[in-house]
Design brief:
This protein is of the alpha+beta class. The protein is built from 13 helices and 16 strands. It binds CU-O-CU linkage (C2O). InterPro entries: Di-copper_centre_dom_sf, Polyphenol_oxidase_C, Polyphenol_oxidase_cen, Tyrosinase/Hemocyanin, Tyrosinase_Cu-bd.
């Protein structure tokens, strides 16, 4: 197995002790005027939020198995149940917390600043762009799934997953296409959701003109790289920490969130509002949202497995992050990130200390995923064939490219930004690589939040101080989905500029391109959509949390 060899656990990193607090649930009685782009879409819930909050009673069902959407298609009995459950959800009174629209509004509330964090009057609760992205969405799906099961009185019900990491699952799932079905949503890009069109995981509002088999190969390679590049350090895959009250942090989503954004963009309408899937405020109105996120959740499960089921962040500010949902008994409940962790983690020093307090019960949410092949985990030819390889340096048009210096730079779609970046150390030994991963960091990324932004990053070895014409190997992307807010007059859509950060693990990539002995690298940033300014490009060595056995 290409990514295999992750045997025993070793080398616990003693991360810095930070004086902060986990993200806590907001006061639901204070919902601000969060808005979706269309003016009639106020997503605050109609109920007061003054209900009593209980601890969640985790389900005691048999293990329920989520299945791939393209395979449940012909299971008439299952499809009837699924559609009936969604139909009933749509027919509930508009102000019922289980109502279809209210379920969708939850997503809008937690990304469009409906609630401020406890004890603050201006720090919104935001469930994207950080390490709470995966746990929050896992719970969100879990409750949605349990409510659907309850509505049809079926304790074994599961939602399907959009199996976009395999060839047969890479088209828009047919089960959502029937206009007469409650699973249908008219607000989609009709060019993509029909006719077996292949999803493009690097989509940025221009059509990929490559052949289907080439797009499939590119998708599988992107998924493979995402895992391989971030296997030794969870934040590269899952996102950076966010702690209570923090205002000025540079948000960094992990590469899994980046991949997931492409499906949002590709499914949503191509017009200015990108409804429904292409804008966070409206995304969950399309039933395919939950099916897509079910696969995102599955990717997390696979990542965890590949890392020996190690808990990703031994940090109470992650483990104790707490969320509120209405459960399948119509009760408002609070749940902690740590409570969903499905397996016992034994401390590698063998002192049998269970690091996580609340996760002693395996598979506490009582669901799993049908085992299907993982074509991206095998051997695929992902390396770009550089046209330049056979040429002598005299034949190449080499260009002098400078260092980044300090002035922020606006990316220009027709003229990619290319910079020379020094590496902290070259020719590192295997042991050094296991202890520290080389990470390419792009900081002070500013985007306009009312539009989606994407740039792709490539890495190449320079010829001395000169860069060749080839951008080199694809290292990863920055994607920020539109996140519109309404101004005071109800029409204004100018989003504030917010800073972000991109971190890409490049240790395996440099091995792949034989760059071990390069002192410097040429980094190329290609703007694909939106407007983006970046404030710096550097390479750092970060302590791994799992040995990099790649
Ligand atoms: Cu909350 Cu796919 O996003």
């Amino acid at each position: 197995m290409l990514l295999g060899g992750l045997g025993g656990l070793y080398g616990v990193t003693a991360g810095p002790k930070v004086l902060a607090e986990p993200i806590m649930p907001p006061d639901l009685s204070k919902c601000h005027d969060a808005n979706a782009p269309a003016l009639d879409n106020h997503c605050c819930p109609p109920y007061s939020g003054s209900e009593k909050i209980l601890e969640y009673d985790f389900p005691a069902t048999p293990l329920r198995v989520r299945r791939p959407a393209h395979l449940v298609k012909d299971d008439q009995e299952y499809m009837d149940k699924y559609k009936e459950a969604v139909r009933r959800m749509k027919n509930l009174p508009a102000d019922h917390p289980w109502n279809y629209k209210q379920q969708a509004n939850i997503h809008c509330q937690y990304c469009n600043d409906a609630y401020y964090q406890q004890n603050t009057d201006d720090v919104p609760v935001q469930v994207h762009f950080s390490w709470i992205f995966l746990p929050w969405h896992r719970y969100y799906l879990h409750f949605y799934e349990r409510i659907l099961g309850k509505l049809i009185d079926d304790d074994t019900f599961t939602i399907p997953f959009w199996n976009w990491d395999t060839k047969d699952g890479m088209t828009f799932p047919a089960i959502f296409q029937d206009a007469a079905s409650p699973l249908y949503d008219p607000k989609r890009d009709q060019r993509h959701v029909k006719d077996g069109k292949i999803l493009d995981l690097k989509y940025a509002y221009t059509e990929n003109t490559a052949s289907d088999s080439e797009i499939i190969r590119e998708n599988l390679c992107f998924i493979q790289k995402t895992f391989k590049h971030s296997l030794s350090l969870a934040e590269l895959f899952m996102g950076d920490p966010v702690r209570a009250g923090e205002k000025e942090i540079q948000e960094a989503n992990g590469q899994l969130e980046v991949i997931h954004n492409a499906a949002h963009m590709w499914v949503g309408e191509p017009d200015r509002y990108k409804e429904n899937m292409g804008d966070f405020s409206t995304a969950a109105r399309d039933s395919v949202f939950f099916c897509h996120h079910s696969n995102v959740d599955r990717m997390w499960d696979i990542y965890r497995n590949l890392r020996g089921n190690r808990v990703e962040f031994e940090d109470n500010d992650w483990l104790d992050s707490t969320f509120l949902f209405h459960d399948e008994n119509e009760q408002l409940v609070k749940v902690k990130a740590s409570q969903m962790l499905s397996r016992i983690y034994t401390h590698p020093c063998k002192c049998n200390r269970n690091v996580i307090r609340d996760c002693l019960n395996p598979t506490k949410l009582r669901y799993t995923f049908e085992q299907v092949p993982l074509p991206w985990l095998g051997k695929i030819n992902c390396q770009k064939t550089a046209e330049t390889k056979s040429k002598s340096t005299a034949e190449l048009s080499l260009k002098r490219v400078g260092e980044f210096a300090t002035t922020p730079k606006a990316l220009d779609a027709s003229n990619p930004l290319r910079v020379i970046v020094a590496r902290p150390k070259k020719n590192r030994k295997k042991k050094e690589k296991q202890e520290k991963v080389e990470v390419l960091q792009i900081k002070d990324i500013k985007v306009t939040t009312n539009e989606t932004a994407r740039f792709d990053v490539y890495v190449a070895v320079p010829y001395g101080d000169l860069a060749g014409p080839d951008y080199g190997e694809f290292a990863g992307s920055f994607v920020r989905l539109a996140h519109r807010k309404k101004g005071s007059d109800g029409t204004q859509e100018q989003g504030p500029k917010k800073k972000g950060k991109l971190k890409l693990g490049i240790t395996p990539l440099l091995e792949d391109i034989d760059a071990e002995d390069a002192d410097k690298l040429v980094v190329t940033l290609v703007l694909r959509t939106g407007s983006v300014t970046v404030g710096g490009v550097s390479i750092k060595l970060l302590q791994t949390d799992t040995p990099a056995v790649i």
